[in-house]
Amino acid sequence: MTHKVVLTVDLDRDYPIESMGKMSAHSAVSQDTDLDPEIRGTMAGTSLVLDYLSKLKIPCIFFIEASVLKKMGETELVERLLPYEIGSHGVSHEDFTGELSGYIPTSDEITTTLKTSIQIISKFLKTPRGFRAPFLNVDSRVMKRVENLFEYDSSVTIKQIQSYSNVSIDKEFDWINIPELFLSTTNDKRDKPISGYLWQLFEGSRTEEDYLFMLDRCFRINKLTYTTLAFHPWHLSINTKERRYLTKQEVHNNFRKLYNLLDKVQSSFEFVGVEDILSL
Question: 91: buried, middle or exposed (CB in 10 Å: 19+, 13-18, 0-12)?
Fold first, then answer.
């Protein structure tokens, strides 16, 4: 059986963090605003990523924060996104549940924000078919609005899974009534949790081998039919611990880490698109 890997990118503002008492987020490395996001790191990282993806013809899903796309405007970089699957990542990286910000939006606010993200993304690219909640903060109330506007979701993480049978998923996630491109966690060689988000690779706390082991375990031990890798383009350019932009050499080093990992993944597994996983 072919082991399938879905590569996803959260294309959002430079290091977004929650704004207390507000639905929208802001950058941790700049004094930006809701609709005028800081995207210096995102622009640089996205360009590098697109160069790599186009060269090796790797399918990818870009979940895009609409205000970031609007600020990018009608540029060559945006045009280069057109061949890829496009999803929504909110308008201003909203905390849709209020778990982090303390602000619980109304149902109308959730619906309006989702519709606005679709309108902006459709204007500059194409209609987004999928959705990934910023901060991965989603619940049944949010999902009810998502399922009325999108064809699939990719906000839910299956933690420490032992099985990927439809029965276990249906029981645990019976509030999901839309195709779900799951994220997942498993254990590493030291029996510590590891997820498919690559931020620890860029921060230096995990190696390429850690993620290759994770993929192997997901398929061999956890019996997954697929697994998902995810990252943010700005993470190539920003150190989150020090909240600073990296030097050119540091950015180059992070890109080499990403390049080497994805190259090894491609040689051992199969990168596929959402159509190969979900029945849309």
Answer: buried
Q: Burial, 59: exposed, middle or buried (Cβ in 10 Å; 0-12, 13-18, 19+)?
A: middle
How is residue 270 written in tokens?
């199969």
- Pairing type for strands 25-27 and 270-271 reads unpaired
Write phi, then psi, for 86 (nearest 5 degrees): -120, 135
Nearest to 68 by CA among 42, 94, 95, 29: 42
Q: What is the pLDDT of residue 172?
A: 64
Binned at pLDDT 50, 70 and 90, residue 162 comes out as: very low
Q: Work out the number of other CB atoms within 10 angstroms of the CB of residue 217.
A: 17
pLDDT at 171: 56
Q: For residue 158, what pLDDT is reported? A: 79
**Nearest alpha-carbon partner for 168 in 118, 265, 159:** 159
Spell out the residues 6+ positions from residue 215 whose beta carbon is closer than 8 angstroms to its own.
3, 5, 227, 265, 268, 269
- Per the CB < 8 A criterion, the answer to whether 17 and 93 are in contact is no
Where in the chain are the domains? 4-276
Instruction: Report whether pLDDT(159) > 80.
Output: no
Closest CA to 186 of 154, 211, 168: 211
Fold observed for domain 4-276: TIM Barrel (3.20.20)
CA–CA separation, 18 vs 110, rounded Å?
A: 16
**Total residues found in the chain within this entry:** 280
Q: Is the pLDDT of residue 167 over 70?
A: no
Distance between CA atoms of 77 and 167, rounded to whole angstroms? Answer: 42
